[in-house]
Amino acid sequence: MLTILYLLIIFFLFFILGKSADSLIFNVKKIAEKLKINKYIIGIIFGILTTTPELFVGINAIKNNIGSISIGNLFGGIILLFTLLLGIDLILNKKIKTDGNIKNILPSFLFILLGIITGLKGYFNFYDGIFFIFLYFTIVFYINKTNNINEYELNILNKKNDFSNDLKNIFLKKNVKKEIVKEILISIISIITLLITSDIIIDLSIKILSQFNISKFFIGLIMFSIGTNLPELTVVLRAFKNKDSELSLSHLIGSAMANIFILSILSLFNNFKITINFSYILLLITTIISSILIILFYKTNKEFSRNEGYSLVLIYIIFIIAQFLYEVAWA
Length: 331
Prior knowledge:
The chain is built from 14 helices and 4 strands. It has a two-stranded antiparallel sheet. The chain is mostly helical and 331 residues long. It is globular and about 50 Å long. The protein is 80% helix and 3% strand. The model is unreliable at 148-168 (pLDDT under 50).
C-alpha cells in the first residue's frame, strides 16, 4: 500500500516537474521573441530547456549513487521522443512538411546514435563527456548555418540596426526591461522548483527500489523517461493547437540531442557504469530502427504522414512490451 502511495506521489511530482519546465520554457520563449531569435533556433533552445527535468534528476541520481536511473532516463527519453511523441505529433497534425534534405537532420541522428553506441564500452566517462559536448555545439552550429533563412528572418538581417543595437534598444524601453526582469525571475524560481522536486522523486524511487527487485535502468528507461518528458508532450500539444508542427519537430530532435548533451555534462562529474544486456541492446536496435525510419519519412514526399505516425507509436508499444517481458524474466 505504501509503494502505491509513493508511486502516486512520484507521478504527481512529475506533473509539478513538467509544469515548472513549462514555466521556464514559456518565459524563455518570450525573452527569445524579444531578442528576435529565429524559430528553428528557438526549437533547439526548447530542446535543451525541456530537458531540464532530466538534468536535475541526473544530478540527484548521482548524489544518491544511482546513476543507472539517469542513464535509463536519458536513453529511454530518446526512444520516447522518436517514437511515441513524434508519432502523436504526426497523428494530431496529419502531416508535417519537410524540405526533404536529409543533410539537415542526419548529423543530429548520428550524434544520438554515436552516444548510445559509445555506451557499449560499458561506461561513459569524463573524456566521453568532453568529446560529445564539443560535438554537440559543432552540430548545432552546422544546423544553424545550413538552415534555410525564411523571409521574416531575411528582413531582420536587412535592417540597418544589427542585433546588438536591437538589444540595446530593447533595454532602453523601461516597460520591456521590467518584463524581461520578471521573466528572468520566474525562470529562476522554475529552476529551483525543478531541483527540489527532482530530489524528492529520487528519494521516493530509492524507497521503492529497496522493496522490489527492479533494475534501476528499467525504472529510468520506462517510468522516468515518461515523467520527465511531459514538457515535450506539452510542446507537441501546443504546436498542434497553434498549427506550428515544424516547431514541434525541430524541438523533438533538439530535445533528443540534448539528452546526450545532458549525459555528457553529468559525466564530467561522475563516471557512469552501463550494464550491457538484452535491455540495452534492444534500446540500441530500437533507436537505430526509429532513426532510419524518421530519416526515410523526412525525405519521402518531403513530408511525414499520419500513417507514419501510427507506425512510430507501434514501435514504442513493442519496445515497452519487450522491455517489460525481459524485466519480468530477469527478476
